[in-house]
Structures
1.
Amino acid sequence: MTEQMYEAIVIGSGFGGGISACRLSKKWPNGQVLVLERGKRYPMYSFARTPHDMSKNFWNIPSETKGGNPSDEETHGLFDIRHFEKMDAVISAGFGGGSLIYANVFLEPPDWVLDDVRWPATCKKNELAPYYKIAKEVLGARPVPTNDDPRRKIIRTERFKQVAESLGRESKLLDINVFFGNDFQNPTPIGVQEKNRYGALQTSCTYCGECDVGCNTHSKNTVDLNYLYVAEHVHKAEIRTEQLVQKIVPLDPDGKENPYAEGQNGYRIYFLDLTKTKDRLSYVDSKRIVVSAGTLGTTELLLKCKEEWKTLPNISSRLGERFSGNGDFLSFVLKGKEESNPNYGPVITQGTDFNLFKNPDPERAFILEDASYPSFGSWAVNFIPTPSIWKSLKSLCKDIWYKLIRVGSLYGRSGYVFQDLLANDISQNSSVLLFMGVDNSNGKMFLQEGQLGIRWTQKESMPLYKKILETSKEFYKITKAKLWFPLFTWNFFSKSNITVHSLGGCVLSDHKETGVTSSDPKTFGQVYGYQNLYVADGSLLPTAVGANPIATISALSERVAEGITGIEPDSRLV
């Protein structure tokens, strides 16, 4: 017997899941809404930092991983890395979903992107404007503060601005979802803690550059500190973590499973309780479901229900289409002439426009953003065997030899030795270039031997990537660096992309023949062929947006929730 019939179950807890959980639990409070999240909770200072802890910080369930060793340890880590043809993807598992590892940027795409014929009329910029506004307020988006405090100076921001000016491009500080205190005009001192407007404890950003590996000080405005916090602590939604959903089955009027039903009597959800070692499979029933497991997770689950379990056979044949990696591309420029210090500050602070917002070039439209990485990563970079490192080591050996043979003693000060050894830090004068653009958005997700596969039509987007590579080389020349190269997956043998912004698969459309989910305001996000079954995450997006997509994902998810609840959203959440 199932425990109860919930009013709503939300699968996943990223931007779409967090927004859905908050808005639906306001409509149906006190345990009538259940959130099922496959990952763990991450309290303050619980994110992995040591090599030992990082080894368990990846998602691996051997029994469900093709090619995996069944004897491998099962781990429910933060990072889930998927490998596909011409495209790899990094996604997140945890209470807060992708918000736990995102780069904080809240950036609305230009009008022309949403004017594409693949975007329904109800999803144009003017239609989504109110929802962008609400999401931006809740997530606390604002530029990095600038004042007289020398600790707020971010060198790489200035370096990227100089390069932009040299290229005749415009560089702007971007709105980022980072906590600098509740008063936007008077930022709270670095490292000082206070409760945010929703009651969650946060720390005014410490500028550590660790945003993308989990913010241990909770300075990043992840959805577990706003939308989900209110859902759980104010509206009393039930939250269950480490619960991996396997299957969705419609019910008949008697509460029995019926794969031919259309959802008017609710659904049964089967899931694995990953906190157990045996007897893991459980199920719960709900009147309505919002699937927010992320682009890959949502599409994979619905594909399995349609094709493998055959419990949702009427889902549109368009399921899995229009996959996009949002034009993601990463390049590195090493040892420039001037300092850039990529280890300091929020992970992204500015954006340089390359025909995305001004003078659009649909085939080559992208934005360049500065990227940082944690300071502990610079120690590894610093000891890459380069000529400067060999020179420092040679100097160190020479000094030791001199003291032992000529002086006969090692006594005395040796600080200058370490200064020589560490001063040639490769990292300090290097830059990480993060690109996002409008790719062709014509990829296809499908099931292959029970696993999700992606067929990525990379060739159609090569004008975009060629222009990105050209820009990387120009950055290298302007900064007078020693070396530049793209991420290792893009090499002479295999030009493969990596995305952290997977999009598409359950796209919004006016008709079942052209999409998977409804764009009608009354049924916005509802899966064609089924009642009370909704999607709210990146899989809704019909195309790449070029800009960081969380603003658009959030706006669409707010609209889905409004259609379900009939309540106009506001930023107070209560």
2.
Amino acid sequence: MNARIEDYALIGDEQTAALVGRDGSIDWLCLPRFDSGACFARLLGDESHGHWRIAPEGADTCTRRAYRRDTLVLDTEWETADGTVRVTDLMPQRDRAPDVVRIVEGVSGRVTVRSTLRLRFDYGSVMPWVRRSDGHRVAVAGPDSVWLRAEPAVRTWGEDFGTHAEFTVAEGERVAFVLTWHPSHERRPPLVDPYQALETSVTDWRRWAGRCRYEGPHRDAVVRSLITLKALTYAPTGGIVAAATTSLPEKPGGVRNWDYRYCWLRDSTLTLGALLTAGYHEEAEAWRNWLLRAVAGNPADLQIMYGVAGERRLSETELPWLPGFAGSAPVRTGNGAVDQLQLDVYGEVMDSLSLARDSGLSARPHMWAMQRSLMEFLRSAWRQPDEGLWEVRGGRRQFVHSKVMVWVAADRAVRTLESHDDLGGDLDGWRRLRDEVRREVCEKGFDAERNTFTQYYGSRELDAALLLIPRVGFLPPDDPRVVGTVDAIRDDLGHGGFLRRYDTEAPDGSVVDGLPSGEGAFLACSFWLADALHMTGRRKEARELFDRLVGLGNDVGLLAEEYDPVDGRHLGNYPQAFSHIGLVNSALTLFGGDETDRAG
């Protein structure tokens, strides 16, 4: 089993994704969607839970690997005593069915290569029946059917509950494997030409990456982050999942293991802003349209997250047969936080739709009527305690960030009416709400003794989400309370040069989030710190922090949710959209000015 989360690279087809280890093993793949059951779950268990490894006989980890420039096509190479071999992995954008294409190519010498495929449906719990048909190996169990073929054909055999192949490639020779899923009650879909799929994928990805408008420092990292966000997009609906995985631990051996294969409203404004500013209006509009469909209905029923097509029922379940990554149990599917009240999401939705309107995205019927409905709900509900941005499980509180985002909702409603008075709405009432929320936050959520806003009313704890106060416009960056908050958060929540979200255990011993203490530095929050330092005039410090954060990307430029600066390892689900959104937005914030500013 691969020891570190960052040992993995991502391939995908914009409907699901796979993780490929340095040893050439695909250890995670859910079919046919991001949130479907995994047919390869070695990531959270061992080889018996499903994987597919292609590597030289007797070899361990690869010599080197890299994505082809500006693509999601992965090349992995091994240098052996007999020669060098390359495995190219990709998932072509699908027509009807998802395919995994793995092309083995001899680079030099003559190398013997082994393929070991163990399919285990439903997160490693169901062993399929495997047979031969028309030159394929066909695995079937319940609703799932997977077909494996090689071009040119190689000998395969069954052994140890797996399908094996062994063959030799000389310089210039290629063998392509194609793994195709389809519902077991349907006929096999048309065959994919693996070599044409490779050529098309490279061309399509490079054309897409070429649309990026950012030309500042670390452009390669920005493009890689945008490609990762594209890969985490569910193309049929435009929804973007928070990560491709479930239950990768925030603390190895701990219980902070959650399912992130869903779409969070908290990501909406930051995602939309990154896509629009970087030049991806089509993707931004698709995300906006997903948002409108997902949140339609009674404002009181607004959820913090939805499925990739807008599904609402995401019940949390534990999978006891999986021991978890690095023994981190339980492994969970679904997410119980879906039932929480998080008032900040109303602000994030209002902010997103305001940004979409101001950026010239096409109007949608009933969008303003829905926004008015959200505001009417907030008028009566905003004083309630909630679980907050971080989905705490230790009880509701009057979280300051949540109240700030209520202010954002009222502010965006006011600004929209001021610019579009033909829309209609309670302008005076929303102005009063905006003023009332700001007054209460500044009175109850601010510690004058320490000159900092706090995590919740009456507390002394801090919260990295408060770094967003100047970004959303609640107070200007040069306000002494903003500067004091930035300094206090950096001092109190700093962790190895980066930033934690909050203290997982209060000084008085109370448990803020209802879980055992301990987690790594939260990468999105660390990017927010870089932004806040920049906005408060400390640009050199901001850029130094940004450089260190970019340097945390693994060898193929991917970031997890968190980072442990003590052990130097990634933590949490992976790759994490929130982290890559943070990287893109920070680059645009820090280096989006004129050429002099970029070089400073």
